[in-house]
Amino acid sequence: MKKRNIYMIILLVFLIVVSSALWFMNDTRKEKVMIKDILPQAGAIKLIDGASGDPVIQKDFPAIEKIYSIDDKPSAFIASGTGYEGTIKALIVMDNEQRKIAGIRILEQGDTPLYADGIKESWFTDRFEGLGLLEYLNRVVLDPQKPTDIVQVTGASVSSQAVLNNVNSAIGAWNYLETNVKKDPVENFISQEMWEKDENSFMISWPDDNSVRITTEDLAQYPQVTTETILQKTTGVKIDTRASGPLLKDILKKKGIDIDSYEAVGITGRDNYYAMISKDIIQSRDIILATMLDDKEIPREEKPVRIVVPDEMGVYWVKMVNKIELYTHISPKDIQRVYIFDALVRNIEPYYYEYYGSKDKSYLVGKILSKFDYVDQNGFFTMAGSDGLIKNETISMVRDRYYIKTEGQNAPMNIGPAFKLGMNVKEMSHFSTTTDAVIFPGVMMKIIDEETIPQGKAMRLRAALEEAGMVLENGDKLVLTDMNGKEYRISSSEAKNAYLLPSGNKADVIAGDMTIKDMLRISKIQN
């Protein structure tokens, strides 16, 4: 009986060893295929046995788990470290000839999927491709200033840093093995200070580069208010909510700031969501920095606070607040020109942006703005959807980070890296800067009374212009410019009886006996 038990134990151990070996070999085979995919010109790829056990690598670059050679040179590294709450594992492949990073792949992502899955997307991993191997990389929040700066995934700063730690560990190990240069050690974990700061504090800033960081501990020192309100989502869903926390105005007052003296408040979340609260809302509503919802502490993924504006739409209820900005001046809207979108972007090369599994024709907002004569940086980029949602963003935020996708579900719609579904302005009817507006005639006709004229379904031209924000007075003149640059003039009163006629991706204007084909813009000339 004892012998039988011994045999069973030996057999079990043997099976475990064989299974582990097969698993390891299968894992290795997959990694070799991935290396070849990243670096197609790679020659013989071999796992370097025991390389990760080198005393220097173990001590200085503990994230390194495996090292592969390409043509007998160390070239690919499997690195693993801790992120926000789980393991981040990456494959980093080097191009030895160019002495650059050929590419990286995220093999394992154990952080919160809602916020950290962006680190697996190509729009993030592609940022490492082609970077040199002689210097470590730095994580930055927004605009890179140096070639070694990597813009993080918004809302996932800790996970992004974990990826950088993996890549820097590979750079350090490569330099040690290939060039015999010992670089500074790289940890395989994120310091508690970093993730606690991300989770438990936010910044308030105001003009002239003034700012203060507020922690969740600070919030407890202020009077707490509780309100019963309704969270109304853009989908139409209404949720009864009980919110508790200090008022923004009380926090600012203690810092010597009168919120009523500012024109607007901009609030940004770690997930890149932005909402601008206008002066009329500031003066008529309480803005609560909620730390409790329905008598429970807000969940970790919404910390440090959630903005609650009672009796206002949920678009203002920003989660994961990381910055509150106070604006002393916002240039008022004075729309002088209204463009037809398709005509405006006709000579802009579209970008086929992959967003939630759909790759659709899209246009970078910055390229669209370059078509205007002037863009006031103190103004706002305003987007309006067919559902009545109007959203304001700062020009600096949308210029290089937002695209307008014109195909696929909910188009036209604003999208961008780390931009979650539900933050979008869907079926956009128009957008505008301070003086220029751009309309999507097909969507615009859904919110303006549609009429049938001999030429087809159309809408009143003046109604479309006014919906886009152009204010017309009696005596104002309009200059209508087609795609050939030919100009036509009509009065604002004539515009009442003129029609804008969507025609495929174009729009025509019918004004009396005059038909203007393929309209580019309508400009106002004040009396």
UniProtKB/TrEMBL annotation:
Keywords: Electron transport, Flavoprotein, FMN, Membrane, Phosphoprotein, Transmembrane, Transmembrane helix, Transport. Residues 83-174 form the FMN-binding domain. InterPro entries: FMN-bd, Ion_transpt_RnfG/RsxG, OxRdtase_Mopterin-bd_dom, OxRdtase_Mopterin-bd_sf. It holds the Pfam family Oxidored_molyb. The lineage of its organism: Bacteria, Bacillati, Bacillota, Clostridia, Lutisporales. It comes from the Bacteria. The chain crosses the membrane at residues 6-25. It comes from Lutispora saccharofermentans. This is Molybdopterin-dependent oxidoreductase.
